[in-house]
Amino acid sequence: MQSMTLIELLMQNFNAHDEEASDELSLYGGFYTDGPDHEVFDERNEVPMLPQTLLAEMWTLDFSSLYTRRMERFWSSHSENFCILAKAHYLVAAGNCLRKGQLSPDDFKHVTRFVVTDPSQPATLKALRDSPLVTPGLSVHTLDINGVKTYDMLRIVIADGREVIYRPDAEQPFQVFENERALYNWLKGQFASEQAGKALTGNFLRGEAARTQDSVRFARGVSELLAHDWRADVRLINQSRAPIVGDPFIYLRDIARQVMTTDAHQLLTSNADLRKQIWIGYLRGCR
Can you give the residue ranges of the Dermonecrotic toxin N-terminal domain (predicted)? Predict the structure, then answer.
């Protein structure tokens, strides 16, 4: 027996067998207000909707192609806006951390000086649109564990060896560390807590494709992190030493777009995919 929500069906679509034997759909299945753990499925919890009718409507809609077109239109229209809003969010978060004493005045200058010339002044739209400033003694990197990078975090490395982590979805978006050892120990402490570790894992494995591709490697890295203390000669974190080239916020935008595109490709089934499955079935029948 297979069970899924209506949203999941909309994403996955009916399969090739359902398309070829649509008259059997109402005989063997239906729509109900209760999930698979419920024991009784009858007129009391049945939704009066024929599967064949929905199949025809979904074939006309072709949700996968519709979603893909709208997603491409969104990024075509709002790519620059994404970067502007990401920079604005970054500056607001830095200002809040400064006021709460989570960033020192010097650290505040360090983390904002590659975004705007004078962070003490309100940022203009022009300033947010401009390319990042050249900042000697400071570089912006990704954060990775066992080579698996976060999709939305930045690591700012200062000339004196200190490192600052920017995590936009955290209650405290900026965390300052004296060196990489301190960052390692912080990560170790986060993953030692089930709740904190689960939240942080979401910054590394966002999206179905990432979970499928990187979950084993990431879990191995976390296990090694918890089992061993930091060593300068063992690169368990930050294996990628090169800084982000160009605007870090363009990098974040491109990653977000890539995650959306990859997930759409992996999770959605289009009419074209169904036709391919049906024709493959026909060809197998001719062998």
Answer: 2-201
What does each C-alpha distance from 279 to 65, 166, 284 come to in angstroms?
Answer: 19, 49, 9
Find, among 101, 16, 79, the residue nearest to 256 by Cα.
Answer: 79
Give this prediction's pTM: 0.82
d(CA 117, CA 33): 57
Structure tokens, 52: 């064949």
Q: Comparing C-alpha atoms, which of 1, 57, 5 is closest to residue 29?
A: 1
Which distant-in-sequence residues (6+ apart) come within 8 Å of 9 by Cβ?
54
Q: What average pLDDT does the segment 124-131 reach?
A: 87
- Range from 16-20, 55-59, 147-151, 193-197 carrying the lowest mean pLDDT: 16-20
* Token output for 23: 């008259």
HSE, CB side, 13 Å, CA atoms: give it for residue 48: 2
Please tell me what DSSP assigns to residue 212: H
Choose between 172 and 52: higher pLDDT.
172
Residue 27 has pLDDT above 80, yes or no: no
Report yes or no: 224 and 210 within 8 Å, Cβ to Cβ: no
User: Other CB atoms closer than 10 Å to residue 115's CB: what's the count?
Assistant: 23
Domain boundaries, the chain: 6-62+270-285, 65-267
51 Cβ neighbours under 8 A, 6+ residues apart: 18, 22, 25, 26, 29, 30, 31
Distance of alpha carbon 21 from alpha carbon 60, whole angstroms: 18
